[in-house]
């Protein structure tokens, strides 16, 4: 019997990114995340299972996907005028067969998630070697949460390193240290989220306390890892001067070996709001405008920079 090939569930591979690490990069997005951030811009990344996204404006309720779907996820229901409309029964788990996606004449359906092997992902990564070499770029693994599928991710990073490709991961840090430490030898740069310093407020905002996250961050510094700390900035939720000061001073205390590359401020945006509707979900912060002006961001940056650490504003 042939051995079963190791796979990971990937929901997107994005080329030519310039935001998540130096140079031109390929981003590999892993499905599944242990946290539930209210401002998440990739809601399709949170659940580890396959999900169907639907662009309602493109659907004409033809019912072709209803007949095609082997899992009976797609259904029709009557409307007041006697016509029928298509809907997705999200209580039924999608198998990821993609038959509905392929059968839809309007291209209104997208199945999120694809099980891929390391060689399959590497085939896509290696297509852009010239861009990595010319720009000092590389590969960044994100999600979701990359450590959720840690063994596969470490193997993929090791393969990148063997091919001379710079490696980075985006992580929320919420995993066991036994998992996180496997990444140290194969990751050139950790893009590490710090969402709130207070453990209980952290739980209120993302669904879990932060002690495990902070411990992993400290241990990564102790292990000599190169780290950019990323601070998602959400107006009124985690941007008070007291919170910013406490967080920055904590980072300054633990980065004693000098491997802190930057502290990146990631201002709130609503780029992922439409995805919630396509998943049949409600965006948690839809009734609140939390965007920042350039002047507000510069004021925050100057305030944080007074503690003599490298502060950057990173807009996606």
Automatic annotation (TrEMBL):
**Domain called Radical SAM core: residue spans:** 19-308
**Could you give a single Gene Ontology term from the biological process aspect?**
choline catabolic process
Q: Report any Pfam family annotated for this entry.
A: Fer4_7
Names of required cofactors: [4Fe-4S] cluster
| Residues binding [4Fe-4S] cluster 2 | 59, 62, 65, 104
Q: Which InterPro entries match?
A: 4Fe4S_Fe-S-bd, 4Fe4S_Fe_S_CS, Aldolase_TIM, BssD/PflA/YjjW, CutC_activ_rSAM, Organic_radical-activating, Organic_radical_activase, Radical_activat_CS
Q: Where is the 4Fe-4S ferredoxin-type domain?
A: 50-79, 84-114
Q: How is the cofactor bound?
A: Binds 2 [4Fe-4S] clusters. One cluster is coordinated with 3 cysteines and an exchangeable S-adenosyl-L-methionine.
Under PROSITE patterns, the record lists: 4FE4S_FER_1 (PS00198), 4FE4S_FER_2 (PS51379), RADICAL_ACTIVATING (PS01087), RADICAL_SAM (PS51918)
Could you say which residues bind [4Fe-4S] cluster 1 here? 33, 37, 40
Q: Which NCBIfam families match?
A: cutC_activ_rSAM, PFLE_PFLC
Task: Identify this protein by name.
Answer: Choline trimethylamine-lyase activating enzyme
- State the species of origin: Enterococcus ureasiticus
């Amino acid at each position: 019997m042939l051995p079963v090939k190791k796979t990971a569930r990937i929901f997107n591979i994005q080329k030519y990114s310039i935001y998540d690490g130096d140079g031109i990069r390929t981003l590999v997005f892993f499905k599944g995340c242990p946290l539930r951030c209210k401002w998440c811009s990739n809601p399709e990344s949170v659940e580890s299972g396959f999900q169907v996204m639907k662009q309602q404006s493109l659907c004409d309720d033809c019912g072709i996907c209803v007949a095609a779907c082997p899992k009976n996820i797609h259904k029709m229901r009557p409307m007041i005028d006697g016509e029928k409309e298509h809907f997705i029964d999200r209580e039924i788990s999608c198998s990821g067969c993609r038959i509905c996606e392929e059968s839809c004449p309007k291209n209104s359906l997208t199945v999120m998630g694809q099980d891929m092997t390391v060689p399959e992902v590497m085939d896509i990564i290696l297509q852009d070697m010239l861009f990595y070499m010319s720009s000092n770029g590389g590969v960044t693994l994100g999600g979701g949460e990359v450590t959720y599928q840690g063994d596969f991710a470490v193997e993929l990073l090791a393969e990148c390193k063997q091919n001379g490709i710079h490696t980075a991961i985006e992580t929320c840090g919420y995993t066991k240290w036994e998992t996180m430490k496997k990444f140290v030898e194969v990751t050139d740069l950790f893009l590490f989220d710090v969402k709130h310093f207070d453990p209980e407020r952290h739980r209120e905002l993302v669904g879990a306390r932060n002690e495990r996250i902070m411990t992993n961050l400290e241990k990564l510094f102790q292990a000599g890892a190169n780290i950019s700390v990323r601070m998602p900035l959400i107006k009124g939720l985690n941007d008070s001067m007291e919170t910013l000061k406490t967080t920055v001073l904590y980072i300054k205390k633990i980065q004693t070996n000098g491997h802190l590359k930057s502290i990146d401020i990631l201002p709130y945006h609503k780029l992922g709001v439409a995805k919630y509707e396509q998943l049949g979900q409600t965006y948690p912060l839809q009734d609140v405008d939390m965007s920042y002006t350039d002047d507000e961001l510069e004021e925050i940056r100057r305030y944080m920079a007074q503690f003599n650490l490298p502060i950057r504003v990173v807009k996606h």
